[in-house]
Amino acid sequence: MNNNFCYLLRVRYAECDAQKVVFNGRYVEYIDIAVNEFTRVVWGKYNDLLAAGIDNQVVNLTISWKAPAHFDEVIAATVKPIRMGNSSYTLKVDFYNNESSQLLASAEIIYVMVDADEHIKMEIPHDMRKLFETGANGIRIDHAGLS
Questions:
Q1: Where in 11-147 does DSSP place strands (E)?
Q2: Angle, alpha carbons 32-38-39 (nearest 5°)
Q3: How many Cα neighbours within 13 Å face the side chain of 86?
Q4: Which of 34, 39, 52, 65 has the greatest CB tally within 10 Å of its CB?
Q5: Contact 117, 53 (CB under 8 A)
Q6: pLDDT for the residue numbered 135
Q7: What's the burial of 80, exposed, middle or buried (CB within 10 Å: 0-12/13-18/19+)?
Q8: How many CB atoms within 10 Å of residue 120?
Q9: pTM of the predicted model as reported, rounded to 2 decimal places
Q10: Nearest 5 degrees, angle CA 89-CA 123-CA 4?
Q11: Is 135 helix (H, G, I), strand (E, B) or coil?
Q12: Domains and their CATH numbers in the chain
């Protein structure tokens, strides 16, 4: 793993499928949670963004799976900004087994910044752009109960 923002989660029994591994659709939920924690660190509370008239929407998501995750394992999801356009931004989310550091899956997700009321594409505000570029390297949020 690296020094990017890291979100730790523990796989719950209900997240596993009949093959006894994390169901593939759960990774979309994991991405959403990890990205929300990342953006909370970088841009603040989501409700504060909405109050400022700013929101974002997913426009593309790709996931590649490398290895399975199992019940009660701790997954480390790292989030790293990789591109920023005028109104869109792309994040890379990698999932690792926290104990072995084995790569489990990689994803890229693209968001478009929109007006919170009209849901019309808008330019990313300059102050948010600066914060995004700085990122959240070295920040770790532990929802797995390790610390």
A1: 54-65, 74-84, 88-97, 103-115, 140-142
A2: 90
A3: 3
A4: 34
A5: yes
A6: 85
A7: middle
A8: 9
A9: 0.94
A10: 25
A11: coil
A12: 5-142 (3.10.129.10)
